[in-house]
């Protein structure tokens, strides 16, 4: 980190005053996680949780102040809200009080976000490289093609992929203190990748990741939605914790490839969601088999049936298998999901079948009184 540039940034931030205390944001101790690398600056502005919704002008002023410093190429400021630990109310059925391990307070607690969304489904994986994002995007497009109002949230702060997979680098516009999400392929979509340059490295600590996620959920004008698909980052870290605490997840879908090394991590993902009281709706086996684009020959490069067997072992539903086909990868890279670009193909129909089964499962939960507000017509 450049000490000279960091000093200049802190000096610029001293001109930004917190209207509540009258002190500048540096003196008030509101700056957290300041990182400077190759002219790219990221920091979090810590505010009391009860002021988070009204602090967007302060955040924007801090971002403008940093962007105006000589030598700064890009500036990103996010809000992160903290509050002192307090006694927690009794947990709702199936959800631990105060989040995992019953811990109270801290980032990721408070009133639930996204109250106008009928069902929120996390698409997750225990490890990267299993095609989770491609699966999430195509499932979301499939649900939209079935007549639902669908949102797609990219919760991967470190490696956002929606701009590439949706085929747009358009920046969302702001209306007052609200961000207007993008519309693409019948989806209402939001990603940190729409807000920063494509090559920006997000070198953020956990509270900053959680603050950015809360902003994308709480300060984006999503509007009423039947379902929101959340493309989760791989693993079991801060983003998963924030989502389980801050939104009423209807369930999670785990994506894995058939081989043992991926299934071990998928198993961890299932256990993590169970610990935070989020039902696992099922497992999907991606890259289940390879189809040669020339002759159609089928080869099971990573084995086959591993996810089905693991789902049976864990007592969760196996939702289906998806092939490793060149067209899926090419169309994803081109920003045209195969469900939209080639709906007549067997691959697109496989996504549609899984999407239909998800709707059925969500409707079953709703009819039992414990699920989201979504119906199958």
From TrEMBL:
Domain MIP18 family-like: 8-77
Residues passing through the membrane, by range: none
Biased composition (Gly residues): 96-108
Span list, region Disordered: 87-108
Binding locations of ATP: 126-133
Coiled coil: none
Keyword ATP-binding: yes
Keyword Iron-sulfur: yes
Sequence similarity: Belongs to the Mrp/NBP35 ATP-binding proteins family.
Subunit structure: Homodimer.
The protein's name: Iron-sulfur cluster carrier protein
Taxonomic lineage: Bacteria, Pseudomonadati, Pseudomonadota, Alphaproteobacteria, Acetobacterales
């Amino acid at each position: 980190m450049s000490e000279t540039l960091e000093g200049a940034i802190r000096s610029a931030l001293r001109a930004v005053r917190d209207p509540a205390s009258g002190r500048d944001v540096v003196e008030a101790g509101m700056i957290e996680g300041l990182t400077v690398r190759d002219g790219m600056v990221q920091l979090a502005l810590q505010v009391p949780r009860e002021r988070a919704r009204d602090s967007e002008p302060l955040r924007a002023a801090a971002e403008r102040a940093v962007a105006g410093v000589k030598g700064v190429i890009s500036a990103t400021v996010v809000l992160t809200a903290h509050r002192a630990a307090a006694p927690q109310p009794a947990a709702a059925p199936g959800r631990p009080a105060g989040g995992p391990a019953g811990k109270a307070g801290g980032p990721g607690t408070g009133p639930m976000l996204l109250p106008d969304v009928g069902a929120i489904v996390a698409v997750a994986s225990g490890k990267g490289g299993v095609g989770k994002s491609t699966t999430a995007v195509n499932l979301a497009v499939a649900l939209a093609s079935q007549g639902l109002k669908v949102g797609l949230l990219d919760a991967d702060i470190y490696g956002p992929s929606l701009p590439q997979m949706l085929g747009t680098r358009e920046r969302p516009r702001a209306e007052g203190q609200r961000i207007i999400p993008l519309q693409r392929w019948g989806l209402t979509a939001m990603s940190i990748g729409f807000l920063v340059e494509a090559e920006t490295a997000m070198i953020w600590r956990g509270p900053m990741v959680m603050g950015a996620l809360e902003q994308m959920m709480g300060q984006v004008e999503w509007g009423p939605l039947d379902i929101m698909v959340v493309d989760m980052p791989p693993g079991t870290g801060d983003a998963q914790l924030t989502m389980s605490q801050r939104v009423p997840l209807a369930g999670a879908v785990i994506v894995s490839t058939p081989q043992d090394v991926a299934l071990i991590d998928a198993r961890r993902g299932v256990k993590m969601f169970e610990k935070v009281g989020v039902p696992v709706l099922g497992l999907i086996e991606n890259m289940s088999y390879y189809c040669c684009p020339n002759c159609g020959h089928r080869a099971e490069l990573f084995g086959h049936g591993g996810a089905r067997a693991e789902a049976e072992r864990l007592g969760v539903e196996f939702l289906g298998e998806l092939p490793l086909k060149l067209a899926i990868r090419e169309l994803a890279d081109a920003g045209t999901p195969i469900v939209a670009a080639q709906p007549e193909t067997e691959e697109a129909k496989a996504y549609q079948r899984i999407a239909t089964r998800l709707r059925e499962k969500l409707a079953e939960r709703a009819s039992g009184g414990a699920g989201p507000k979504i119906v199958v017509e």
